[in-house]
């Protein structure tokens, strides 16, 4: 009996010692190191890579990727990573050269948009020859992005090819369900109410895919500001069409959309601010909106509830 007690004590002490000395960042030492630019891209890589990747996102929720400049720390992270994943189509407008320099090295570097057929892209009106980067608002195109990420992961970690393929299948199934949800919610409002007015033109793919007329106040990139004539024009449109609600965006200051609301008021009509939409990032970590799917659901709920 005594011997057993001593044994138990020894084991507990040993366990305590081992746990106490355990490396707290152990989790960070397993899996391939993948650096992703935006929260949306990071979520996509996690969804397909699962336990075999350790994803580090550069931009947090609510950060504007059009204006984001990589810090020296970001560049170092990318240099030390096994794989770097970005959106492409110049979403990360101030980071282009960095990707080119990193691509010269050994690692897997990919843009999630790189394999999508150009015929699916919407022209970037203010910059001929380049395309609107906000493709994640068409779930069909995000499925293509998921396939590209799966291919990149297979290249990185051939041994787990089967796992990446089954994760991809599962994720595509979840995206099918998301599409069903979107279509079900849109069917709740009459066609003439399907007008989406936001701070910047992030929603053109959404409009094309789901039958919404879309108007952005600020142009496709947030780099250019809306002029007073743009505000007046759009206000006139809102009054004429008796639009119920306009929307602010998580990564754009709300003052421009408030100016629009004021301009509508000056023309004798009241338009509500229907809520905040996630445009270029997911919601906060630790909430239901931290994934692409959660983000899209939150957006569609905000839009439909305000325009009903
Ligand atoms: Zn944007």
UniProtKB/TrEMBL annotation:
Which GO biological process categories is it annotated with?
Answer: cell adhesion; metal ion transport
GO MF term list: metal ion binding
Stretch forming the signal peptide: 1-20
Q: Which GO terms describe its cellular component?
A: cell envelope
Which keywords describe this protein according to UniProt?
A: Metal-binding, Signal, Transport
| Coiled-coil positions | none
- Which Pfam family would be a valid example here? ZnuA
- Localization per record: Cell envelope
Q: Is-annotated flag, keyword Oxidoreductase? A: no
So what family is this one in?
Answer: Belongs to the bacterial solute-binding protein 9 family.
Q: Which PANTHER family match?
A: HIGH-AFFINITY ZINC UPTAKE SYSTEM PROTEIN ZNUA-RELATED (PTHR42953), METAL-BINDING PROTEIN HI_0362-RELATED (PTHR42953:SF1)
**This protein is called what?**
Manganese transporter
């Amino acid at each position: 009996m005594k011997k057993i007690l001593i044994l138990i004590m020894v084991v507990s002490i040993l366990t305590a010692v081992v746990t106490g000395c355990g490396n707290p960042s152990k989790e960070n030492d397993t899996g391939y190191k993948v650096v992703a630019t935006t929260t949306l891209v990071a979520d996509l890589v996690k969804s397909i890579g699962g336990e075999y990747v350790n994803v580090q996102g550069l931009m947090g929720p609510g950060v504007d990727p059009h204006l984001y400049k990589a810090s020296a720390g970001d560049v170092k992270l990318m240099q030390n990573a096994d794989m770097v994943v970005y959106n492409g189509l110049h979403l990360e407008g101030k980071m282009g050269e960095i990707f080119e320099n990193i691509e010269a090295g050994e690692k897997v570097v990919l843009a999630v948009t790189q394999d999508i057929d150009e015929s699916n892209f919407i022209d970037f009106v203010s910059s001929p020859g380049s395309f609107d980067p906000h493709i994640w608002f068409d779930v069909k195109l995000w499925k293509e992005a998921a396939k590209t990420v799966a291919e990149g992961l297979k290249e990185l970690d051939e041994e787990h090819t089967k796992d990446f393929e089954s994760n991809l299948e599962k994720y595509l199934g979840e995206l099918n369900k998301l599409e069903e949800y979107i279509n079900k919610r849109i069917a709740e409002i009459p066609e003439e109410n399907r007008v989406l007015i936001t701070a910047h033109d992030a929603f053109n793919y959404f409009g094309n895919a789901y039958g919404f007329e879309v108007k952005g106040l600020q142009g496709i990139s947030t780099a250019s500001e809306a002029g007073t004539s743009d505000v007046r024009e759009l206000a006139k449109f809102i009054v004429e069409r008796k639009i119920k609600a306009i929307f602010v965006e998580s990564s754009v200051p709300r003052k421009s959309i408030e100016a629009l609301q004021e301009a509508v008021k000056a023309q004798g009509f009241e338009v509500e601010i229907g809520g905040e939409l996630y445009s270029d990032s997911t919601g906060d970590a630790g909430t239901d909106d931290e994934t692409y799917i959660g983000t899209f659901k939150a957006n569609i709920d905000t839009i439909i509830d305000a325009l009903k």
